[in-house]
Amino acid sequence: MSYKSVILSAFVYTALTVKADIPRYAQKIDPRSFAVLDNVPTGTQFDGTSHFIPPGTTSDSLKAKPFHIYDDAFYDIIGADPTLTLLAQTETDPIFHEAVVWHPETNSVYFAQNAGPVAAGTGLNKSAIVQKIYLDEADKIVAQGNGSGFINITTVNSGQQVINPNGATNFRGKIVFTGEGQGDNIAPAMYLVDPNNNDNTTVILNNFFGRQYDSLNDVAVNPRNHELYFTDGPFGWVQNFRPNPVLPTQVYRFNYDTGVVRAVADGFHMTNGVTFSPDGMYAYVTDTGLSSGFWGYNYTNPSTIYRYDVNDDGNFSNRQLFAYNEIRVPDGIHCDKQGNVYVGEGDGINVYKPDGLLIGRIYLGTTSANFAFTGKGKMVVCAETKLWYVNWDAEGADITSREYTG
User: Fold this and answer.
1) What is the pLDDT of residue 398?
2) N or C: which end of the chain has fewer CB within 10 A?
């Protein structure tokens, strides 16, 4: 299969417009409806990977109206007529996985293939790839309104290859990718890629005082001090393309100008996603310890979002449990302009108020590892073998301050 130009049919949820308080592709899910169930199965029948279907619904009905309202605060996010459009799909190869990032100047969205699964044909044989789409094409598909059309998916060939990319963020007008590394001799690293000239790609960090990181996962920029914060965990090891870990599972901060790197948080099983509130006062970190790749699941391990205070000196303090994820694990995480917290998880994307209350969900019926806000009212969602486009009222936290050049 060639990835340089994949033309795939698009699908758009369509239906007759119904005048009602609830938008046509939304539905209310009342927590009171499942506070008491007629039968609560044992853990051998229903566990942390099981998909919960609320009473009175089916998997098909949940997908037919994928914007699930758990609290009225979600109405302000979805707006009057949210839509969910399927832009592309593959049969088995999880090419729509992580490192989802929007580059405003070129109006393009980058994303990376999953490095671990057998279906990807990666592992020690070859590195996962970075690809991109242009939102101008996506907007035309949505505007047609009848599901016809296509989108081109282009492989990004950079001057220096990003080895097993997994996380990405805007940084000073360019994009920083985290690479998980490969085998014993290709160390995990951070790469700076210029979207206007992919040949201009450089490694900006690849060790902690001479020691290899385990598998760099995600990265975000603190809008207050403009430093890069990244997570590192044993993901390559549990997916059999990296050696045994030699560092604790931690969150680090990196000053690009001085080269100084230091740990700011530990005590995780599998530290994963990281992001900041719009004002930079809080950091959010996901721990996906419930899932250990080829080693299987431990349902007593965290499937948890933690919140930290970000001190004036840029360090973390006051760790709090922000939310426990109900289906599989919380992975990629981002905030909107109002400070609401969005996280990719086992059946789509959960949306929380800043106090940790689950207010809504984009229900995909399958895992979304990551996603990206792409301007006002738009979001691109990766779901392994499917690529989705959301049009609603939400707007991501401002990324222009994260391109600081002073």
Assistant:
1) 79
2) C
Going by the DSSP 8-state scheme, the letter that residue 402 receives in this structure is G
| Fold of the CATH domain 67-395 | Neuraminidase (2.120.10)
C-alpha to C-alpha distance for 375 and 255, rounded to whole angstroms: 27
Q: Where are the alpha helices (DSSP H) in 79-122?
A: none
Contacts of 266 (CB under 8 A, 6+ apart): 248, 249, 250, 251
C-beta separation of 321 from 306 below 8 A: yes
With contact defined as beta carbons under 8 Å apart, do 235 and 245 qualify? no
Identify whether the C-beta of residue 113 lies closer than 8 Å to the C-beta of residue 131.
Answer: yes
By the 8 A CB rule, do 167 and 175 touch? no
Alpha carbon distance 400, 173 (integer Å): 8
Say if CB 140 and CB 126 are below 8 A apart.
no
Which positions ≥6 away from 261 have C-beta within 8 Å?
205, 208, 252, 253, 254, 255
pLDDT along the chain (406 residues), means of 10: 38 39 94 92 88 93 96 96 93 93 95 89 88 93 66 89 95 95 95 90 96 97 96 92 94 97 96 96 94 82 95 97 92 96 96 97 95 95 95 86 47
